[in-house]
Amino acid sequence: MTRSTLTSGDADQSRRHSSGPSGRGSVSPTKDRGRSKVQLEDFELIRVLGKGCAGRVLLVRHSRQNTVHAMKAISKRSVLASDELPHILTELSILKRFAIYEPHNDFVTRLNYSFTDRENFYFVMDFYPGGDLATQLEMFGTLGHVRTRFYAADLVLGSKLTFRHRHGVILRDLKPENILLNASGHCVIADFAGKKRIVMDRAWSFVGTTEYLAPEVVRGHEYSYAVDWWGLGCILFECLLGRVPFRKDDDEPPVS
């Protein structure tokens, strides 16, 4: 496949804007890569990894560093229209916090750069070639006791759920689609858009995927860190039996 320098049109084909330098907003790299700023033109597009209602995930190569990354390109228009800006800013804050306090933790997705232009927010992260846990479940149906114990140890000990809780982070939307697998087959927690930082160990907002939601969230009650352990239990149940313990009705919309 021919690789080309990225433009905002590659990230969001529905809209194009002027390629002049005045179209770019402030740039905020999260690591010192030997230069003060990065921008979209520093990356070459390899292929599209996935698409969503708010943007795309692209496999890219940093031209100068010659390193491969996964780039999330999130449409500003979609974010504002769906009132998702607080979630995006929370995700960025949490990713930066983990980059500072856990720079060598291979069990949590690593943010390398973040920047913006007129059309999109961009999060440039490590690329995990193993896909996600949901794909493994689709391929094999069940994963067996050995693999399930392995993934459970990764999520509890490697990804350090308790560490996140000590720093006031409730994951809230822990599900197979948000658990990536690195080149060694270990679990990596990704997608922090639904996560919440809290101060008094309690939260109220209704965010998550129905099949993995704890009862207190479904009922609209106050909840805390226990909802993450509930979600983990549902995932391990699915790994062993090939189905979630609780199913939503077919006509029930996803929770957002």
From TrEMBL:
Record domain Protein kinase: where: 43-256
PROSITE patterns per UniProt: PROTEIN_KINASE_DOM
Top-level EC class: transferase
Coiled-coil annotated spans: none
UniProt region (Disordered), positions on chain: 1-35
Reactions the enzyme catalyzes: L-seryl-[protein] + ATP = O-phospho-L-seryl-[protein] + ADP + H(+); L-threonyl-[protein] + ATP = O-phospho-L-threonyl-[protein] + ADP + H(+)
Biased composition (Low complexity): 19-28
EC identifiers of the protein: 2.7.11.1
Domain of life where this protein originates: Eukaryota
Keywords: ATP-binding, Kinase, Nucleotide-binding, Serine/threonine-protein kinase, Transferase
GO biological process, one term: intracellular signal transduction
Biased composition (Polar residues): 1-11
Molecular function per GO: ATP binding; protein serine/threonine kinase activity
Keyword Transferase (UniProt): yes
Key word ATP-binding present: yes
PANTHER family listed in its UniProt record: PROTEIN KINASE C, BRAIN ISOZYME-RELATED (PTHR24356:SF390), SERINE/THREONINE-PROTEIN KINASE (PTHR24356)
Protein name: non-specific serine/threonine protein kinase
